[in-house]
Amino acid sequence: MAMNLRKLTAGVALGAALIVGAGAVTHAQDAKHSIVTVVKLSGIAWFNRMEEGVNEYAAETGHDATQVGPASADAALQVQMIEDLIAKKVDAITVVPNSPEALEPVLGKALDAGIKVIGHEASSLQNITYDVEAFDNAAYGRHLMEALAQAMGGEGEYAVFVGHLTAKTHNEWVDAAIEYQKEKYPNMTLVTDKLESNEQQQTAYQKTKELLRTYPNLKGIQGSAGEDVVGAALAVEEAGLDGKVKIVGTSLVSVAGPYLETGAIEMISFWDPAKAGIAMNKVASMAIAGEEVTDGMDLGVEGYNAIKLDGKVLYGQAWVDVTTDNMSEYDF
């Protein structure tokens, strides 16, 4: 030791103190956090995949990381769940809001209780510690519109879906897509306001049937929620219009695969919800430990290897495009 100990008894006492101190440090490092991810809706493929990531993170770290979500995509139900988590005094809440605005008060309450709050698909949230986004939302929206425009030959009528009219991320994609269309493809026409699917395939199906009746010259549909393109594709196939109405949007191969194979869906894009789940939980653990998130940081999660930090919002580079040519590379 660097210290010169003059008496054996002092050395013994110091040694005992060091042993106790070392134990305390080890305990702090090994302390297990309780982190709960609150998703928009339970029981659909997108959030089932996210739960795989949450469970993987829990298994790898030993933290008590779990996922919950309402049976219907209802912000009020999410508020109730978060109130319950505040009462349980969890260490962190990660959340994918149905309506960021509706959750602001209860998330503020969580922060006041000392709970770290990590958002996802909600870059506008104020009552957060951090928000984790897979990519820049406007760039993604423009990317989807470019794919739709190419499929439509740069002209014709189209419509857009969002999961909810209050879903911040979906609206950012669609708003950027529409703006891009007006600038780059003036011969394309948006036939109606944004259509709301409520994150449900059946709703997207019914509304697409109505679209096809009302706008018989419709040539394209862009979806936002994971079930949108599938509901739309089913309606288009039933109408005998597959190949004539081009469909692109966000989904997973496990959901949209059959319609990619038939050509009813032109292309899907997505980020891996499992990776997003891991990234959110990792950032939550860092926040609990008082570790700073910095611009350019590598979170050690694919797609989040050089994050862009803008205020409290972290942006990755995590989107992928899937067509019939490469769908076999994805098993989720």
TrEMBL record:
Superkingdom of the organism of origin: Bacteria
Keyword tags: Signal
Places the protein is found: Periplasm
Domain Periplasmic binding protein, chain residue ranges per copy: 35-292
GO molecular function list: carbohydrate binding
Gene3D superfamilies documented for this protein: 3.40.50.2300
Chief site of localization: periplasm
Signal peptide residues on this chain, from the entry's feature table: 1-28
GO cellular component: outer membrane-bounded periplasmic space
InterPro entries per record: Bact_Solute-Bind_Prot2, Peripla_BP_I, SBP_2_dom
Family recorded in the similarity comment: Belongs to the bacterial solute-binding protein 2 family.
PANTHER family documented for this protein: ABC TRANSPORTER PERIPLASMIC-BINDING PROTEIN YPHF, D-XYLOSE-BINDING PERIPLASMIC PROTEIN
Name this protein carries in UniProt: Monosaccharide ABC transporter substrate-binding protein, CUT2 family
Organism: Nitratireductor aquibiodomus
